[in-house]
AraC family transcriptional regulator (Corynebacterium variabile), 151 residues
Amino acid sequence: MTGRPDLQTLVLLRRVRDRMDLEYDRPLDVTSLARAVHLSPGHFSRQFKAAYRETPYQYLMTRRIERAMTLLRTTDMSVTEVCFTVGCGSLGTFSTRFSELVGVPPSMYRAQGADVVPGMLPCIARQITRPRRERPTAPVRNREAGTSGAP
């Protein structure tokens, strides 16, 4: 059964998504996320993608990059510090994923800034600074999402 998740499964998936939002800076892997809601890793990954149109890895990386964008705009932390602060274990992977999602490397993003202006409504600022949806990739199932070199 790989169709749309039922209501009970959606509740479980939301719980995992909320955990990813809160613990984005910690090592999170699909196996432990699935185990926490009593689903197999494969079924969890398929249901997550059916519900949210992206894999758990893609979702987690998007959240990490969003947080990195904020840190790059609002702090003096180095790109390396930002990388590890948001839970990525590899500066190279972080920079690659950042560039894919945002369109420019982290250092260039910091130098150029975002098109946010003082007084802009927060909902508009979030919309224009949100990373683009990444292109579909093969699912990463059992690796730690923040340190793998895979998409």
